[in-house]
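ok so for the tutorial part 2 we go from a plain amino acid sequence to predicted structure tokens. step 1 is just haveing the sequence, like this:
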Amino acid sequence: MNFLGLCLAAVGLVLLLHSIFSAVEHREYIRLMETEQGLPMDIQIECIVAVAIFIVGAGIVGTNFVPIKLTEKFARKTSDMIMARSEFSLFNTRGRVLGEIRKAKKN
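step 2 — the prediction. this is what the tokens look like for a chain of 107 residues:
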């Protein structure tokens, strides 16, 4: 199955490169002829088909996806373990100074 996917991805890539080459050649032709034309329909269709074939091939190659089941992943973890973000831990804050000022006002 992976061989089929690799072949489809390769064919899609070759077709895409060919459509890009054709588009560049057509653009040079339009510039030489000094006319205002869009990209021909056959180049557009070739590009769309090439991208579709490449996507199908890449999808076949990458079939070993792991299912996303968060309930299994987080079943044995507490909320403290999930929400533990050490990069947001602040140790030198104004709270210590404000606490000392508050204690001094109470005394």
